[in-house]
Amino acid sequence: MPRSVNAVASRARRKKILKRTKGFWGRGKNVWTVAKNKWEKGQQYAYRDRKVKKREFRALWINRINAACRQNNVSYSVFMGLLHKNNIELNRKVLADLAMNHPETFTAVVNKVKNS
Fold it and tell me: Which of 22, 30, 93, 99 can pair with 68 through a Cys bridge, CB separation 3.0 to 4.6 Å?
């Protein structure tokens, strides 16, 4: 009896990976073994960088808030301490948006916490 290898499923599995690696560079898009390895490595990077993205955005928000605070003659750490002391619950994402797009509102927040 001949050996059955289910070529239909094997081909479908390979086509699925090759379809996902369509835009890759060099042999990574059309050679099965290279494409499979590149796709798997890409999935590892994607998983890792979903976590890293959160860190990078938090750092960006802190930089933006610090720059805006310095323009208002207060350091970032002092400003954040005053915010918490005055029970003003604005997160860093919102504060960074205010600092970038609505500087007069951010200045009002800084003055509110400095004067209380």
Answer: 99
Q: How far apart are CA 102 and CA 63, in angstroms?
A: 16
* HSE-up (13 A, CA, CB side) for residue 23: 1
Question: Contact at 8 Å (CB) between 95 and 106?
Answer: yes
d(CA 10, CA 13): 5
Domain that holds residue 57: 9-115
Extract the tokens encoding 10. 């094997």
> Rounded distance, CA 90 to CA 98, Å?
10
Q: What is the pLDDT of residue 20?
A: 96
Q: Give the global pTM.
A: 0.79
Alpha carbons 20 and 44: distance in angstroms, whole number: 15
Looking at the 3D structure of the chain, how many domains does it have? Answer: 1
Supply 9's token pair: 């499923």
